[in-house]
Fold this protein.
Amino acid sequence: MFLGVQAVLRRNAVPGPAALARFVSHCGYSTASNSQRLAGKVAVITGAARGIGKATAAEFVRNGAKVILTDIQDDLGRAVAAQLGPDAAYARCDVTDEAQVAAAVDLAVARHGRLDIMHNHAGVTGRMVLDSVGSLDLADFDRTMATNARSAVAGIKHAARVMVPRRSGCIICTASTAGVLGGIIAPTYGISKAAVIGAVRAFAGELGRHGVRVNAISPHGIATQFGLGGLAQLFPEASEEELRRMVETGMNEMGGGTVLEVEDIARAAVYLASDEAKYVNGHNLVVDGGCTVWKGANKPAPAQ
């Protein structure tokens, strides 16, 4: 590569944009920051009516994909699809029902001839308040696992059904930093997201041999309606502004005024779905400002 740089510099004493573009193109890299990185691809996104799912749908369409948004919030979902234009459509899908997940996959194939990207994003917080393991509500646990973990497995299963014959495809599952590091939030939610990461790792090897990649994204706390709703269970007296400040300041690991936003997760999904990530498989892409890579030591109080 160094010799290639020298060659460009010799031909262009002051390399302009065209010369640099020729060199970068020669190396196989893209120079277009606004290029349509998903051009021609067909995607299904569950839980796409608001928050991260909505932002991801918008980013996918902006990058050239045709997207089927699914959710159980029909009015919101239809409105988002209408806003995104002719490359977006809405379909109802309760992800706790395997048949509806299968139908969403089949709809993509029926409309567009194939499915390139399956993004299993839909989820619930479950019950956030838990005094001790003895007070764990197993009915709530089952509901949370069904929506967060079992649905991801159903999405992997049915996406693989149509992707494996084509020997091509990308499956993305939304996990969480709560599934990476214990104690971040209520155990039920953390267990469900740890299971999502486990499912990605369990299926990536088999599906990778058929040209289908399976990856996860683990966001840290974001001040979405979903995130603030979960936090409100823990702090019922706090105002929405106070809850937002807890997320954007109290939970923030980055300095310099940097705040995690839904668009950051959407762009991470675009990367994993694009051909730029063609050899990324079985990976959990953690977007957390470094939260899960360190823990401060519990230092004893100095002797008096």
In short: Confidence is low (pLDDT under 50) at residues 1-15, 19-33. The chain is about 45% helix and 10% strand. The first strand starts at residue 42 and ends at 46. The chain has one domain: 39-290.
